Amino acid sequence: MTPQEAIEIIESNFRNCSIAEDQEATSMAINSLEKQIPKKPDYEGDGYDDNGNLLYDTWICPCCETQYELYYDEYKFCPKCGQAIDWSDFKRCLSIT
């Protein structure tokens, strides 16, 4: 079962919960599972090369918006919030620079 499938099952059961503690626990479980689904970071540049291409040096967590150095802080999960990071665009980002 994938995290997304688990989320769908939990959400369908969540609608039927009436006890506040069960709803809170279910909400926490969904949030934790959602962080296991990799999301692409945003990239930020601070200058241009000789050809006018933007030089990216920062990536930003898509969940908590914490900023990290692109070439030094390549984590599978955000150290602050635990969000899984999808690096599939990283090579595309490098080819832009």
- Global morphology: elongated
- Class based on secondary structure composition and strand pairing: alpha+beta
CA distance, first residue to last residue: 39 Å
| SSE string | HHEEEH
For the secondary structure, the number of strands is 3
Mean pLDDT: 82
Spatially, the strands of the biggest sheet line up as 1-2-3
Beta-strand residue percentage: 15-25%
Taking all Cα atoms into account, the compactness measure Rg is 18 Å
Number of helices: 3
Uncertain residue ranges? none
Kindly summarize this structure in a few lines.
The protein is α+β, with helices and mostly antiparallel strands. The protein contains three helices and three strands, in the order H-H-E-E-E-H.
Q: What topology emerges from the helices and strands here?
A:
Layout: H1 3-14, H2 20-36, E1 42-48, E2 54-60, E3 67-69, H3 90-96
Antiparallel strand pairs: 1-2, 2-3
Helix pairs in contact: 1-2
What does this structure look like?
37% of the residues lie in helices and 18% in strands. With 97 residues, the protein is α+β, with helices and mostly antiparallel strands. The protein has a 3-stranded antiparallel beta sheet with strand order 1-2-3, covered by helices on one side. Helix 1 (3-14) packs antiparallel against helix 2 (20-36). The termini are far apart. The relative contact order is 0.15.
